[in-house]
């Protein structure tokens, strides 16, 4: 196998598939048609860029068709299938049996053998639910009786088609056509569908629930979902059934798991790559010269008549039911992707020759292209001659009140289908004017709180969304533009809203939900953030919706924030520095209010299925830190934010706008900025920039009232405070105050106000500090010192208070004890009165976490007993946090 040739073929196929799909969508033709025609163009019939014997592409196409049937199963609602009604089931039955019998008979009359005739008849049975649903949706006719019958019949048609495919493939490959053999094959097929589905429904939910709980890798769930599908395909193949039947059953099973949305979403990109390869392969296998041969055109014409007549008679199953029978028959015409699967399998099995394959391909293309136009013409004609009103007993007049009636019906539709009379009435009054009022808003909120996919589908098909919520209507149309969409119900699910509503008392999120002032705003925000995702100007559209509902300025601000910041908390939690004080304070200042932060946290936790357990835990930790920060107004309040901004701006002006120094000022820890004035911030930033080498220290000394400010800039490293304070003690300098700050890039500033009768020589002090870096630790015991710890005083740090007799070298002794105990100091506040020093330190362990019992005990031991010579273990801190 030539790797270069394979890669070239894949390149050509992928580009051709996407160009064809884009072009087809723009001219209103189903993407599948464009992909087939693209296959003809790049195949042997025209350009010859790709050969029909390429096994790699054929394998990729086989994977694509397995993914396609998995998608069908994932999107199929078994409850919907069971509720399609008697008329839909009868229409589906007639629509499968009649074209099969007519096709079989026509092929027999043309002189083909029984196997071929049987396979051609089977290939004409299936209806493309996607194409029909798209046309009825474009016509805003999904609420009509005809659309309901056709869509229900098409769903049932898919399942019947799979059984027919299984039976026919077995018959033509085994060569046996006895009644007993047919009965056995049908039994095996039905048994596999039933037993496989039941077993899968019992196995999939607990299995994938367990996988989601224990997995840490992002791709584990979707990989096992695909493996689950391939297992079912293998079992089906072992049972001598088509592998795609197993893929369909796997999809039905996976659809009932809580992880189905995530599996569907993560498999979608894979499907976008592989499924078009299957349809292009159909065009590659076709021989365009065959389309001009008289025999092919003759067979195609006969099969087209059979295909049309076989489906037009399907409304016989709806006799006695309301609705236009011709419109129902036209809705059953398109064969689409399922017919193509039949034809391709027939060609691969050698049952169909190139001419018959070309004939079937022409039939599929013609019915796919012509049906939308025929449906539009018939529906327009019916609307023209149908009265504009339909009497509905005890119903309100067809005015703006109809929207409220539809909203109430949508709530009921979540559990039971609306009556045909109500649907017919709503479809006729949907063109009347409407204005939102309080009652309609309350009704909409009930839909958000209690509705489901059926509710939103009802609102779309009766025109409520277009009339009253055009932003959501446009979003749904955008969802439905996916050329691989098979089930129109899938676009009407709002998983985020459903998960928020599913929070129960035993759920860890329940306490946070209970603290919300207005839970309805969160649900509406979740709906709009999910519904408008990917739309142009989603925040503006969300504001328009809230204004239309007249919920008030506060609700508008809250909901707009949720839409704008939907991914903010999740992204912040995933960053390596996401839990550092500076990051948390910036986030808290942006969110501003505990209510905003809480609502965004709840929305973030339930949004999407691709959240791993560690991500949720980290997001929860971030939320707790944000709430703690918001409770400290001195750090996050408006006054603090304004003060931080003013000081940073003034410090930037003082350094002359030098870019690197200004960047250092902008990255300065917030707590440090709140304590220091602009002059000190500017001075420190200039000293720090550029960042010193590991073994280097920079020192500058400036006189101040009551002593000298001694500023030391270095790289953050374990024991840095001990080295600096040791050098200060060696010069006999008495520390009166201290500032410690650490930047995210490892820049460390340690500034001390010291007392000295003589000026301090910066160069000598720098040399002493550099000599002390990495030197062994040693300090005298402080048995009279009292050391206490408080883990609750700060969201990030353990606060360590030390009370001891004030004497020279005290700070150095404490710094040595911290270093020996493996404790990082992030801030120091030195004070004393009447000969007693009261020093407060905010500290963490080397990994940036609050102290454990081991570190606390070590600190108390080293303070009381002193630190004997101890070699320094230099290990760069992996978690840089700054607090003053």
How would you sum up this structure, described in words?
β1 and β2 (707-715) form a beta hairpin. The chain contains 40 helices and 10 strands. The chain starts with a helix and ends in a 14-residue tail after the last strand. It is of the alpha+beta class and 884 residues long. α3 (55-75) crosses α12 (260-285) and α10 (220-238) packs across α11 (243-255). It has a 4-stranded antiparallel β-sheet with strand order 1-2-4-3, with helices on both faces. A 4-stranded antiparallel β-sheet has the order 6-7-9-8, with helices on one face. A two-stranded antiparallel sheet has the order 5-10.
Short overview:
The chain is of the alpha+beta class and 884 residues long. It is built from 40 helices and 10 strands. The longest helix has 36 residues.
SSE class: alpha+beta
**Approximate shape:** elongated
Percent of residues in helices: 55-70%
Instruction: Count up the helices.
Output: 40
Q: Largest sheet, described in full?
A: 4 strands, antiparallel
State Rg. Answer: 36 Å
Topology, number of strands: 10
Cα-to-Cα separation, first versus last residue: 65 Å
Strand content: 5-15%
Low-confidence stretches: 386-395, 483-488, 872-884
Mean pLDDT: 78
Going across the biggest sheet, name each strand in turn. Answer: 1-2-4-3
């Amino acid at each position: 196998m030539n790797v270069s040739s394979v890669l070239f073929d894949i390149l050509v196929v992928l580009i051709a598939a996407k160009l064809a799909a884009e072009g087809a969508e723009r001219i209103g033709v189903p993407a599948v048609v464009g992909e087939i025609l693209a296959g003809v163009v790049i195949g042997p019939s025209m350009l010859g860029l790709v050969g029909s014997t390429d096994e790699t592409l054929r394998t990729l196409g086989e994977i694509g068709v397995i993914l396609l049937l998995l998608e069908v199963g994932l999107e199929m609602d078994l409850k919907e299938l069971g509720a399609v009604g008697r008329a839909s089931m009868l229409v589906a039955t007639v629509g499968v049996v009649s074209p099969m019998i007519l096709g079989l008979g026509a092929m027999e009359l043309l002189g083909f053998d029984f196997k071929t005739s049987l396979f051609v008849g089977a290939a004409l049975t299936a209806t493309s639910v996607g194409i029909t649903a798209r046309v009825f949706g474009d016509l805003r006719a999904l609420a009509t009786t005809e659309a309901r019958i056709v869509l229900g019949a098409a769903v049932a048609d898919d399942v019947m088609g799979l059984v027919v495919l299984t039976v026919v493939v077995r018959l033509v490959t085994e060569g046996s056509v006895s009644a007993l053999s047919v009965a056995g094959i049908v039994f095996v097929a039905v048994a596999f569908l039933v037993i496989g589905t039941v077993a899968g429904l019992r196995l999939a939910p607990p299995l994938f629930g367990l996988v989601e709980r224990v997995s840490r890798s992002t791709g584990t769930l979707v990989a096992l979902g695909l493996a689950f599908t391939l297992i079912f395909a293998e079992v089906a193949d072992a049972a001598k059934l088509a592998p795609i039947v197993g893929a369909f059953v796997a999809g039905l099973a996976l659809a009932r798991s809580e992880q189905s949305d995530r599996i569907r979403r993560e498999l979608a990109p894979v499907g976008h790559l592989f499924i078009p390869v299957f349809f292009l392969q159909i065009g590659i296998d076709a021989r365009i010269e065959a389309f001009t041969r008289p025999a092919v055109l003759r067979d195609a014409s006969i099969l087209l008549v059979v295909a049309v007549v076989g489906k037009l008679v399907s409304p016989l199953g709806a006799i006695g039911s309301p609705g236009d029978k011709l419109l129902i028959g036209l809705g059953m015409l398109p064969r689409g992707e399922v017919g193509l699967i039949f034809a391709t399998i027939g060609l691969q099995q050698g049952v169909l020759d190139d001419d018959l394959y070309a004939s079937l391909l022409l039939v599929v293309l013609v019915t796919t292209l012509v049906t939308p136009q025929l449906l539009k013409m018939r529906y327009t004609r019916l609307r023209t001659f149908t009265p504009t009103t339909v009497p509905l007993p005890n119903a309100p007049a067809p005015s703006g009140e109809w929207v409220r009636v539809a909203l109430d019906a949508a709530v009921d539709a979540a559990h039971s289908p609306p009556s045909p009379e109500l649907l017919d009435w709503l479809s006729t009054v949907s063109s009347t004017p409407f204005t939102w009022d309080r009652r309609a808003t309350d009704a909409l909120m009930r839909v958000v709180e209690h509705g489901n996919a059926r509710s939103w589908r009802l609102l779309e098909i009766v025109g409520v969304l277009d009339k009253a919520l055009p932003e959501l209507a446009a979003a749904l149309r955008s969802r439905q533009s996916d050329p691989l969409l098979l089930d129109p119900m899938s676009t009407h699910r709002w998983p985020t809203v459903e998960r928020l509503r599913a929070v129960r008392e035993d759920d860890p999120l329940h306490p946070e939900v209970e603290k919300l002032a207005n839970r309805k705003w969160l649900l509406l925000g979740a709906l709009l953030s999910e519904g408008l995702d990917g739309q142009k100007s989603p925040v503006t559209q969300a504001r328009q919706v809230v204004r239309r509902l007249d919920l008030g300025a506060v609700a508008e601000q809250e909901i707009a924030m949720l839409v704008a910041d939907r991914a903010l908390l999740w992204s912040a939690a995933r960053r390596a520095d996401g839990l550092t004080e500076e990051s948390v304070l910036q986030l808290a200042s942006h969110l501003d209010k505990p209510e905003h932060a809480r609502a965004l946290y709840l929305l973030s936790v339930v949004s999407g299925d691709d959240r791993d357990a560690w991500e949720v835990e980290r997001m929860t930790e971030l939320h707790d830190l944000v709430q703690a920060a918001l409770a400290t107004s001195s750090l996050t309040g408006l006054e603090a934010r304004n003060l931080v901004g003013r000081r940073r701006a003034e410090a930037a002006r003082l350094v002359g706008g030098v870019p690197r120094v200004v960047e250092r000022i902008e990255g300065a820890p917030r707590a440090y900025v709140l304590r220091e004035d602009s002059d000190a911030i500017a001075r420190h930033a200039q000293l720090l920039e550029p960042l010193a080498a590991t073994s280097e220290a920079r020192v500058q000394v400036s006189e101040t009232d009551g002593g000298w400010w001694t500023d030391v800039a270095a790289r953050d490293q374990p024991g840095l405070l001990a080295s600096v304070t040791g050098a200060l003690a060696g010069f006999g300098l008495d520390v009166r105050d201290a500032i410690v700050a650490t930047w995210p890039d490892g820049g460390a500033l340690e500034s001390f106000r010291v007392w000295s009768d003589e000026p301090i020589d910066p160069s000598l002090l720098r040399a002493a500090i550099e000599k002390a870096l990495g030197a062994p630790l040693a300090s005298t015991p402080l048995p009279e010192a009292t050391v206490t710890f408080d883990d609750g005083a700060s969201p990030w740090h353990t606060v360590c208070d030390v009370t001891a007799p004030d004497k020279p070298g005290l700070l150095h002794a404490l710094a040595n004890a911290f270093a020996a105990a493996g404790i990082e100091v992030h801030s120091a506040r030195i004070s004393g009165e009447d000969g007693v020093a009261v020093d407060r330190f905010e500290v963490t362990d080397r990994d940036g976490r609050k102290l454990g019992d081991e570190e606390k005990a070590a600190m108390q031991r080293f303070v009381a007993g002193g630190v004997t010579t101890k070699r320094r273990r230099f290990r760069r801190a992996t978690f840089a946090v700054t607090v003053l």
